[in-house]
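Pasting two entries for a bug report.
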Amino acid sequence: MDKAHLMDDKDLVSLYQTGDQNAITELIERYKHRIYTAIFFLVKDRELAEDLFQETFIKIITSLRKGHYNEQGKFLPWALRISHNLVIDHFRKEKLMPLQRDSEEFSVFDVLPHNERNPEERIIQDEKVALVHSLLDRLPSDQREVVILRHYGGMSFKDISKMLDININTALGRMHYALLKMREMMGKDQVSIKG
């Protein structure tokens, strides 16, 4: 099964459903970073994100074993929808709202891959990451959620609208307003730095 990395998601799902354990391993490896990052951005707590990530894959495996997968090869949006629903269920049970900020000891950007860079490039990249991080934190939660699912989850607006149970135009609008708000905040931050 060394050719698993060359197979598409639909074939890997079928292979797993016929008993090949390596197929699910490949799917997990393929998407674990994107799914974990999307969960973390929503809950802002490392331990909770890890628990929900594990719960997500338990639910995925259970669903696949029972034959409850008919997503026509769209494994990632399906998996992200499962993780999103688990996040919502968690906060409903706890009657909590997701935290708005990272903790001091951990930032979600710590889990994002850094390519090898020289010290100057790392400083510039760290400054960009810090800027995006602060802008995301200042967005309304409904807009932030769409940005996270689109850019960090890699989901289409159609899949986002299905997952969030909103009209596709609402998803597009939230993204549009999020980007406008981020640009506006960047402009205000530049003015305050110069002033």
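Entry 2 (this is the one that rendered wrong in the viewer):
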Amino acid sequence: MGKSDLGWLQSIFHFSFAEYFNPLNINFGALRVINDDLIAPGTGFDTHPHEDMEIVSYVVEGELTHADSMKNESTLSRGHVQYMSAGTGVSHSEHNLGKTVTRILQIWIYPDRLGHTPQYGEFKFDWESRHNRWFHIVSPTNGEAPVKIHQDANIHVLQLVEGNTIDVTVSENRQAYLVQIEGSSVINEQELEARDALEILEEELTINAKTTSHFLLIEMRKAGILLK
């Protein structure tokens, strides 16, 4: 992973981004970006444009205030999710207007095609919805999750209490990317600490929480990227 410290913004880049470039770590299937960002109070990302990307922001702690060229404006906090399909083009800003550091996971997923109509959505989920169970927050447009994106990909989140165990099955022709957001765990005899991640290909996993742990799982088809 890459790292960046701009003072007001400290980031861990799961894939090549900004000044971090590794030709062997550009993407994982349709997953292009996961940035683990710490944003200082009173700072943030000023208005900037995006095109042809499905962007999901998951708030880990603090507050995130969003505004965009579609006239959306809102503040989200721990466990909340926002989604923006950049499509043919949209501009937005993201700021921490609170008094404490904000931590977010910024996720970019390639769309199934170019040129979608820009969209924005958000969900202020109850924290208990992910307590000791996988909570499905993002699905394809024909799926059942509250947030729907233009790609065959699903996002689940989980808070697993210390000492508890849960399984994950990544089916044939599927792959997944697991982020240990908080806490520590043992997964198939592999120890993970906060901010670690695993790439999973057609595999069954058993997760044991060494300490109370917070996870995000992005599951997707095991295939190349198709943009047309």
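Dev reply: Rendering is fixed now. As a check, the viewer should reflect this: Residues 167 and 206 are 4 Å apart (CA to CA).
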